[in-house]
Give the backbone structure.
Amino acid sequence: MDILKNDKNKNQPLPPLTEKEKSVLSYIEDRQAEQGISPSYQEIKDHFGFASFNSVQNYLKQLTNKGYIEIPANQKRAITILHSSGSVQNHVHQIKSEVTKQSSTVEEVLNLPLLGKVAAGRPLESYSHDEFVDVPPSMVRNPGKTFALKVSGDSMIEDGIHDGDIILVQKQATASNGEVIVASIETESTVKRYFMRPHPESREKMIELRPANSTMTSMWYSPERVDIQGVLVGLIRKF
């Protein structure tokens, strides 16, 4: 009677089976369980409707090479099952479980540099490296190019940016009209909505740094005076 051998390398990865390979292996397992002996090549050929014995030999060879069965020399009905047809699926579940377990131990926050304060009002002091803040990874597109700033002022309150909020900024030197940016003007920095357009009076093409506060007016600068530090990608508020 054929038996399922104990797997000495059960923790080793198993090569995946094709659907047909899995079907052949399942059939062999079922016949062993029902009759206590492996099916003959003829029975396998007839069961699957193979055109020749070569097909049977090819599938058994593939199962042998992948480590699922073992066939002693000149003993065609003495197939030994090394791994059941469900072993590969069990191994996949094991791998997924290990990945999930490892993922749960991975640090669940990013540490981004807090580079000081930025004005949501009049331009404030330029920022310098100070400390770090913990940020959920889902809030950041590119951690290597992202930093944090603490907002001072209320010029962006209508965009939901309040005094004391922490904004997350992705470093880049350009912006599209309508994006909220952090910009430096000489030695000061500010957070505003960016527009490149003609000035209403002079019609000269300038950068408008527009507040989100109906009580305040835009600031206008010639392009060479404005150094874009990055665009807003997230906000953190502590209560």
Remarks:
- Residues 1-10 have pLDDT under 50 and may be disordered.
- The two ends are 71 Å apart (CA to CA).
- DSSP finds four helices and twelve strands in the chain.
